[in-house]
Amino acid sequence: MGFEKMEIVYKRPESLTDTTTHYCPGCTHGTVHHLVAEVLDEMGIREKTIGVAPVGCSVFAYDYFNHDFVEAAHGRAPAMATGIKRVSPNNTVYTYQGDGDLASIGMGEIVHAAIRGENITVVFINNAIYGMTGGQMAPTTLPGMKTTSSPLGRDVELAGYPIRMAEMLSTIDGASYVVRRSMHNPANIRKVKKAIRKAFEVQEQGLGFSIVEVLSSCPTNWKMSPVESLDFIRDHMVPYYPLDDFKVLPEVRAIRV
After folding, report:
1. Mean pLDDT of 30-59
2. Nearest Cα to 208, choosing from 255, 163, 241?
3. Domain total in the chain
4. So what's the pLDDT on residue 82?
5. In a domain, 10, yes or no
6. What number is the average pLDDT over the span 28-46?
7. Which residue has the higher pLDDT, 22 or 236?
8. Contact yes or no for 87/78 (Cβ under 8 A)
C-alpha cells in the first residue's frame, strides 16, 4: 500500500503548537494541555480564545497553545482573566493554574472571581505540591505526605489540613459549574475532557463561573516513577479529594456535550 492510500486517523490539535514541552516525564500537565486544545478545536473557538497562565509549572503554557495567551503574576490569573473578559466579553477566556498558585497566593483571587460570578473558565491542576519551585508543601499536600519543606510528612497539627477547593468553591452563589476529575487512567482522562468541554460551554452560554479541578501527577517531586505516581493519585489523592460534581446549576446540567 502506498502512502497516498493511507488514511490520517489522528493529528495534533490546531490549538497546540509543534513545540516539545518542558514538563517532566510522567507529568500529566501536557496531557491536560492536549485535552484543552482538543476541546477548543472541537468547539471551533480557538481564534477567539485567550488563555491566562500564572507562575508555576504552567508558566510556559503560552509556548504550547496556538491561541492568544497572556502571563499573570503569581496567583493573579483570575484577576487578569476578569479584566480581559469584561473588556472583551465576546472572547473565550480561561485560566490554567496549579494548586500552589490557585489555593495559596491566589486564594483571594479565585474566591472573589467566583463570588462575582465572572463568566470565565478555570482549569485547576492539583498535584498536591509546589512543582516548579522545589517540591515544597502546598495547601493541597496530603496529611503525612513528605515534601522538601515537610521532610517528615505534613503534620496537620502544625500546618493544618489540605484545602478541598472544589468543595469550598461550590458553596459560593456565583459559581455555576464546579467539578473534580482525575488523570490516573484513560477512562478518567476521558471524563476530564468532557468536564473541560462542559466548563467552556458554560462560558459560551453566559452562565457564569466554571472550574474543573484535575488531580494530576508530579513524579519528580513525589520521587516516584510515572506509573507509581498514577497509582498514588488513585490510592491516596482520590480518597481525600473525591471525584464528583460539586455544583452544577440546572441550566448547566441541561448542556449536552
Report:
1. 95
2. 255
3. 1
4. 98
5. no
6. 97
7. 236
8. no
How far apart CA 5 and CA 75 sit, in angstroms, is 50
Provide the pLDDT confidence category of residue 6 given band limits of 50, 70 and 90: confident
Q: Which residues does 52 contact at the CB level (< 8 Å), separation at least 6?
A: 69, 70, 71, 72, 77, 80, 81, 84, 93, 94, 95, 96
Is 15 within the bounds of a domain?
no
CATH classification at residue 26: 3.40.50.970
The alpha carbon of residue 230 and the mean position of all alpha carbons in its chain are separated, in whole angstroms, by: 17
Asked whether residue 134 is assigned to any structural domain, the reply reads yes
Q: 2 pLDDT band (50/70/90 cuts)?
A: low
Range 102-105 contact pairs with CB under 8 angstroms and sequence separation of 24 or more = 102/75, 102/77, 102/165, 103/138, 103/139, 103/140, 103/163, 103/165, 104/75, 104/138, 104/139, 105/74, 105/75
**The pTM is what?**
0.94
Mean pLDDT of 5-15: 85
> b vs e for 151-184, b when ≥16 Cβ sit within 10 Å of the residue's Cβ?
eeebeeeeeeebbbbbbbbbebeebbbbbbbbbb
Report how far residue 81's alpha carbon sits from residue 69's, in angstroms, rounded to the nearest whole number.
11
27 in Cβ contact with 58 (< 8 Å): no
Residue 207 lies in a domain: yes
DSSP assigned state of 18:
S
Compute the mean pLDDT over every residue in the chain, rounded to the nearest whole number: 95
| Res 71: pLDDT | 94
Boundaries of domain holding 240: 21-251
